[in-house]
Amino acid sequence: MTDVVIAGIGQTPVGEHWELSLRELAYSAISQAINDAQGLQPQSLIVANIFAPQLSNQAHLGALIADFSGFTGIEAFSIESGEASGGAALRSGYMMIASKLVDVVLVVGVEKITEKSTTEQEAITSTILDSDFEAIHGITPTSQAALLMQRYLYEHSLPKNVFAGFPINAHANAVNNPNAMMPKAIHPDLYEKANLVCDPLNIFDVAPWADGAAALILTRPELLPPGFPHRLVKISGSSFSTDHLAVHDRRDPLFFIAAHLSVERACLKAKINKQQIDLFELHDSYSIYIALALEAAGFAPRGEGWKLSTNNVLPPIISKQGSLPISTFGGLKARGNPGGATGIYQAVEAVLQLRQEAKDNQIDSARVALIQNISGAASSAASHILEALD
C-alpha cells in the first residue's frame, strides 16, 4: 500500500439547477478539480449517484460523463450505495490508487433531484429503504428518522428542542459558504416556532434534497508535478461498513453499528485516536442522526449525543474551543443534500479546511479531519480520515 493524496477538488453550488443537465453539472465540478490538480489527467473515472435512472431516465453514467468530459476510452463506471454512494466511490478510488493499479483517479458525485415533483421525489428517495418491508408500508427516509427521534426522546426523557443547536450551527456556518443552498443563520426562537414536517421533526431538523456535483482527483504524491501549489492532503484511513437494511431487524435501532465500525476501522488504519481529530463532517440529513453519529463515533456516550448540540449555538463553532467542529460549511442541513454527491462534498470541504483555504470558515490549525457519509439510518457507512501533510 502507498500514500494516496487528494490533488484536486471541485464543486458546484447546491440548489435547483433547472438550466443544467446531469452531464453538464458533473462536468462543471470535474473541470474545476482538474484545474485545481494542475491539469492531471485521469486514467479512471468513478461516478457516485443514486437516482439518475429514476429521476433523469439515465443509467450508464460512467460512459456518459467520460464522453461528455472528453475522456472517451478511459475506464469509467458508476457506484450506487444509497446516500453513501459518494463515500463508496471515494473508497473505491482510494483502493485503486493505493494498490498502484491506477495512477490518477477522478471521483465525481452528481445528483439531479429537481427533475421530478416533490411527490415523485419522495417515492423515489424511499428506494434507499427496504422496499419489501419498509417502503411498501409508506415509510420514507423522513418518517423513519422521525420514528427514531421519537424513540430517542422517549428513552432518554427529553424535550423536542434538545437538538436545536445542530441546525443552528449548520445554518450559521453556511452563511459564508458561496455553494450553500441556505446560507442564512437562524435564531433559536425560529427553531422553536418552526412547522413540523413529521412529528417530532420540524423543518429545521430535515436537510433539503437538492442538485449538485463535486469532484476529486486522487493520486500518489510522487506523481504530482513540480512546484505543486497546494498543501497536500492524504487519505490516511478508509473504511466502509453495513448494517441490516431494515431497521426492525436491528438489535438496537438507536446504535448505528455500521457508523461505529467504519470510524473505528478508519482510525485504526490511520493510526490516530479520536482526540487528534480537528473536525467532523458528518451526515446531518436529520438532527437525530447527528446525535446518533456522534455516539457511534465515540465522541459522546450512548444517549448523550444531544448534549453536544448545546455547544453548537450562535456564534458558530469555527475555532476549536473545547468542542468538536461539525458541519463547518453548513453540512447537508444548510449546504443542501445532493444525494449521491454528498460524500464528495464532505471531502472537498474537509480538504479546504486542511489546506487552510476555508476563509471565514477556517478552523484554527486544522490537521486531521473525519468525514462520514451514511445512507438511510446508517445501513451503509463510509468513513475517511484526511490528514494535512507538511
Helix/strand layout:
Elements: E1 5-11, H1 22-36, E2 44-48, H2 52-55, H3 61-68, E3 75-79, H4 85-98, E4 105-111, H5 118-125, H6 141-155, H7 165-174, H8 188-193, E5 196-198, E6 201-202, E7 212-219, E8 233-242, H9 257-270, E9 279-281, H10 287-297, H11 331-335, H12 342-354, E10 368-375, E11 380-388
Parallel strand pairs: 2-3, 2-4, 9-10
Antiparallel strand pairs: 1-7, 1-8, 4-7, 5-6, 8-11, 10-11
Helix pairs in contact: 4-12, 9-10
Describe this structure in words.
This protein is α/β, with parallel strands linked by helices and 390 residues long. The chain has 2 domains: 5-117 and 210-223, Thiolase/Chalcone synthase (Peroxisomal Thiolase, Chain A, domain 1), CATH 3.40.47; 129-208 and 235-388, Peroxisomal Thiolase, Chain A, domain 1 (3-Layer(aba) Sandwich). Helices cover 32% and strands 17% of the residues. It has 12 helices and 11 strands. Strands 3-2-4-7-1-8-11-10-9 form a 9-stranded mixed beta sheet, sandwiched between helices. The longest helix is centred in the N-terminal third of the chain and has 15 residues, at 22-36. Mean pLDDT is 95; it is low at 311-322.
In CATH, the homologous superfamily of the largest domain goes by the name: Thiolase/Chalcone synthase
Q: Largest sheet, order of strands side by side?
A: 3-2-4-7-1-8-11-10-9
Q: Specify the biggest β-sheet.
A: 9 strands, mixed
Q: What is the CATH architecture term of the largest domain?
A: 3-Layer(aba) Sandwich
Write down the overall geometry.
Answer: globular
Structural class: alpha/beta
The first-level CATH class of the largest domain is given as: Alpha Beta
The residue-averaged pLDDT reads 95
What proportion of the residues form beta strands (DSSP E)?
15-25%
Distance between the amino and carboxyl termini: 20 Å
CATH topology tier name of the largest domain: Peroxisomal Thiolase, Chain A, domain 1
Number of domains: 2
Overall strand count: 11
Q: Helicity range of the residues?
A: 25-40%
Order of helices and strands: EHEHHEHEHHHHEEEEHEHHHEE
Number of helices: 12
Please mark out the parts with pLDDT under 50 across 5 or more consecutive residues, or reply none.
311-322
Radius of gyration: 19 Å
